[in-house]
Each structure stands twice: as structure tokens, then as C-alpha cells.
From TrEMBL:
Keywords: Oxidoreductase. PANTHER family: OXIDOREDUCTASE, SHORT-CHAIN DEHYDROGENASE/REDUCTASE FAMILY (AFU_ORTHOLOGUE AFUA_5G02870) (PTHR43639), SHORT-CHAIN DEHYDROGENASE_REDUCTASE FAMILY PROTEIN (PTHR43639:SF1). This is SDR family oxidoreductase. Pfam families: adh_short_C2. Belongs to the short-chain dehydrogenases/reductases (SDR) family.
Amino acid sequence: MGIDLNGRTALVTGATGELGRVMARTLAAAGADVAVHYNTNGAKAQELVAEIEGMGRRAVAVQADITKLDSILAMRDAVTAELGHVHIVVANAVIQYQWTSVLEQSEDDYRSQFESCVLQSVHLAKAFVPAMIEQGGGRMIGINTECAMQNFETQSAYVAGKRGMDGVYRILAKEVGPHQITVNQIAPGWTISERDRTNGTERSEGYDSRVPLKRRGTDQDIANAVAFIASDLAGFITGTYIPVCGGNVMPAI
């Protein structure tokens, strides 16, 4: 038994990022054609497209502002024209900003997190779910965070955006479930990426000591969870928030 995404097309937003690029490669390795979304890093997107095509899959780079519905609709049309119907949507993109206290965090930072977490999720649903309904199924996958359960100091804007995203995804799961569309969230912990490997920063004794598995997860761990949720093996899983963080947070019943 294995993950087989042959005949599926996946869209990964923020695919040029540290985690997104591994998700795109992993979905392609499982057999999916991949739409590589980027905002400004077009060169990295084209590099990733060439890599995926070298794996024998189709791929296309698509630019969009994920906070704007018109831009996402244009992206949908471009992807559909090149790769056909999108079966799997992975909402991975998020706006980066400097974390600080509630009293010092700017209003613009809260707005950026609302737009890139909540509104991106809404826009992607409006753009891609109707065709999934027509096709009789699909996968909506949001990338959340362990921070949404931790609520540590300086995380307020990020946590507010991700907890808002959580609400959208749980309700969407109920609304589109009758059409055999699953809606789930993957919540990474503090993850080792290519940047860490380059900089030699894979270990963090303070963080690692708190994790039951006593280590940080990797970008591949996150991508593996995404591929599983995208596959037929997860066809009866929906409405979930799945931490991929070595047990650092544990949702309770």
C-alpha cells in the first residue's frame, strides 16, 4: 500500500518557500502534476518547475497575490489552462513579519495575518471548490502551526490569523463534505529546512528538550503528512487539525 497521486493535479501556494518546495517535490514524486505558486520569487518557481518536469510530471509556475480574490481566480484559470482540473489545493503561503508584543505589534501585522491566513483560505475555496463539487471530490489542505495551540508571547498576530484559518477550515469541511471533498490542516512544529542544513542550525537544545521525540521535525516530515492527506488513504479524514511536531502539542478530547 502506498501513496498514489497519479492523475491528480495539485496546487501549492508559497511553493518556493522552505516548506512549500518540499511539498511540491513530494506531491510530484507521488505522481501528481503540480502548479507552483509564487509571489515574487519567479526564478525559484521556474527552477522548481524544471525539477518536477525532470521527475516526469507536468508543472507550471503561477504568480498570484494570495490576499486578493481576483488574483487567485486568474491563477486558477492559468493553472486549469495548463494542467486541467485541480484536485488538491495546499494553502501554504503566509506573509512574514517581525513578532513582538501585543502592545507593540502594528495593526498592519494583524491585517497581514488575517489576509494571508483567513482570506487566502476563503479565496482558494471560492476559486477551486466549485470545480471539485462538479468532479465529485477533492482535497483542501491548510498549513497551520503548533503555535495556534501554544499561544506564546509575541505570537499574537500569527496565532490570531491561524486560529481564524482553523475556523474557516472546520466549517468548510462540514459544508463541502457531502461532495466528498475533504478539508484538513497540517500543523508543523519548528521545522528543519534547507536553510537550517546550510547554516548548521538543525539542533536547538531548549526546543528539542520539550519535544517528546527530542528533536525537531524536517521539511520532509511535513510534506509526507501533506501527501498522505492528499491521497485516497485519507479519504475518510476531514475537519482535522493534525500536528506534525513530535508531540510538542497534543490536541485533547
